[in-house]
Every structure is written in structure tokens, then in C-alpha cells.
Amino acid sequence: MQTNNHQVFDYDTVLDARFGAPGTSSRIEAEEKAYAFYTGQIIGDARKKAKISQAELARRIGSDRSYISRVESGQTEPKVSTFYRIMNALGCRIELSMSL
């Protein structure tokens, strides 16, 4: 197992070095992939908590199991309307708020 010897890193610098500065096309692409992955994790966790299969979730929203699999793995990001249908099918409540 590797350790970092308790060194402190500035992760903004690490992200900049790996994906480019904020606002660059490479950084935007990396952030979009990260959001897709995170969205998939939220859906997968909610589905497992609801104790239903990918096939059952797909049936509830009128889709197929492979679509749910792609969403959960971050390969596909659902449209907002589909995200709402998925979360509703899982019995989840979505709350939006604005910070000013």
C-alpha cells in the first residue's frame, strides 16, 4: 500500500496539471465526465437502497436494462426529465434550491 507520507497537496494544482486550467476545453470535458459518473452513482445507490434490479427500474421508466447500466456507469448522462422519472420510480424526492 502506498502512502503520501502525510504530505499536504493543493488539489486545485493537481487538477490543473492533470486536466488543464478551469475553463479550458479539457477541464470542462473532465468535469462533465465527473458529473456523469456522480449522477450514475447517485442513481445506482438509490436503486440498491430501493432493492430493485436495473431491469425493474428500466421497466418502471419505459427503458431497457442496458440504458440503466450505462447511466450507472457514467457512460450516459440522462436528460433532466429522465433523471426525474428515474428518481420518482425509485421513490426519491428531488429538492432544488438557489443560493444568491
Automatic annotation (TrEMBL):
Pfam families, per the entry: HTH_3 (PF01381)
Residue ranges annotated for the HTH cro/C1-type domain, each copy included: 43-97
InterPro entries: Cro/C1-type_HTH (IPR001387), Lambda_DNA-bd_dom_sf (IPR010982), TransReg_Diox_bact_type (IPR050807)
Name this polypeptide is given: Helix-turn-helix transcriptional regulator
Keyword terms: DNA-binding
SUPFAM superfamilies, per database record: lambda repressor-like DNA-binding domains
Keyword ATP-binding belongs to the record: no
Organism: Parabacteroides hominis
Origin: domain of life: Bacteria
